[in-house]
Amino acid sequence: MARPTTGPTRLTPPPWLTAGLKPADTPVPRAAVARAAVALSAPLAAGLALGQPAYGALVSMGALSGVIGDTADAYRMRIFNIAVPQLFGAVGVTLGTLVFGHGWLAVAVLTVVALVSGMISSIGAVASVSGLLLLLNAVVGAGLPMPDPWWKAPVLLTLGGLFVLLLTLLGWPFRRAAPERTAVAATYRSVAALYEATGTAAYDEQRQAVTASLNQSYDLILARRARQHGRTPSLVRLLSQLNVVIPLVEAAPAAHLRAQLYGPIPAAVPACVRELADAVEEGRTGAPVLDLPTPERPAEKAVDHALRHAAAVVHTAGTEPHPASPAKGDSVDDRLGRPAALRIRARRATRAALLSEASWRYGLRLALCIGLAQALVSLIAVPRSYWVALTVTFVMKPDFGSVFSRAVLRALGTAAGLLLAALVLAEVPRGWWDVPVMCVLAALIPAFSAKGYAFQTAAITPVILLLSDTLNQQGFALVMPRLYDSLIGCGIALIAGYLLWPESWHSRIGDRLADAVSDTAAYVTRAFAADGDQGARVRARRKLYRDLSTVRSEFQRALTEPPPTGTRAAAWWPLVVAVERIVDATTAARIRVDHGAAPPDPAEVAAVERELRELAEGIRESETLVEVRSDLPGDENGVLAPLRQEVRGARAIAGPDLR
């Protein structure tokens, strides 16, 4: 019998709809706040002082693009993140300016630009921002009158981006490799927290934090290793210090199992790892002093060996690569599973973008929506507005998250931003008062961007409106049309970019999860191969954890989609966790074998691999998880016993029928 209700039922929105409205618990980036305030207000002041406020507004628009793109930590990567997208932005505004007021030609050009923007977004972070600025500036150039001659607008916008880059690099002479050193030290500290979490329910969450920290550190240090490996001793040393943390990470699953069976590991272990983190951050050298208990079990021996090895490398004053790290000239495939040389990475990425089905699919979706938006504002008798296509650009950016949730959050964020813009445009006189107002509004962008997409939209909206008002002098009359334009743009994105595409309703997350399970099966076989290459096993494990991190992100993004995609993602989420635990159990078993435990029977390994491949095929063939009671015989006291238990748990996960 149904439980009686004692009062009226509260109508609350579903979690997938409200998830983006919760501000992220992240610190405010104070340096970025200061840079944004100066970068956007100083050009306005210079323009007013020279009697050319429109020129100042264009430089500030370029600075806004630089502020949005300044997301890296390492200085050399910030040069790429800001300078390269500015070049694409200059091309975009040039194309837009040349087709301004040309009707069908403008529609055709922006549609092609949108296709290119969507396709190159799959290459990487820098290419994604470059594609965004290419399309964004093309839309602005086609929608706002720019000063003559045609080259003036791209030059002014580029100056704004270069101004942000100059402000960013002011600290380079004093900090140089500090971001990389801080990242490596943070990785060591995350490993220390992982060892403290062994044997507890917090272990899985902390392991994910370690994976994220490792990915960030390797990305920072190895991004330009092909060019700098032989010439930058500090990076070589940091690479060695980062590489020797891998054995510690590999030993953690075995330590976790040991803690579950025999109690917490000695506190000296995480304390020693934290001391190594301090040594990395401070650049200390000298003979390490380790106060560690005598190891007895295989897991304890693995941890002890990894700690002593890491301590020896961290405290070494030399800069030559340690044997545990790649030798000069080697590919960084050993850690990242991707090419080291920039030219190789660019060639493979370009080939993937041109031949990938997903790249074309996203590009065509974005092109269709931009084409419809530009046709609406260029050819139909409605007030001309670039804001419709601008809204579509932000909502439909394929690598930025769920189209549905972003459309909703964009509408809400724009509405909030317009309230602030209305207050500014109605109460603040145009002219020199724009400078302090812009200083305050610009500072909100990095502060709010860290909190979430809706908050970022609310911060950017009044800035763009204030700058565009400087160009076309419409004042308060800008506010309500921009709200209507935003709603129209969100509607186009939802209908033409979401509802009309079957993949919106039949998510591909199952295929990605199936690929991860297949890779896990291959990893199990590789881990216990009789003639296995330890380096190849380490590469496979690092690549697998990186791929699983991507799968986890895909599922978390799918959770913000409406049913059935969000419901299916929620039902399959336990399987994502189960696969991660299978990888951990495999690594723990391999570590125990390396340090004295008896190796498993090859038949046991083959049985585990067979179960995982059957699970992968089941995921590909069905949208509903089916519980399977698998029989995995083997030595219950052997090293594979925990692994077989995790595989049984994964096969026993069942989800609701979502059809």
Automatic annotation (TrEMBL):
It holds the Pfam family FUSC_2. Keywords: Cell membrane, Membrane, Transmembrane, Transmembrane helix. Residues 97-257 form the Integral membrane protein YccS N-terminal domain. The chain crosses the membrane at residues 87-116, 123-144, 150-172, 366-387, 407-425, 483-501. Its main location: membrane. Coiled coil: none annotated. It is found in: Cell membrane. GO terms for cellular component: plasma membrane. It is a multi-pass membrane protein. Belongs to the YccS/YhfK family. This is Uncharacterized protein.
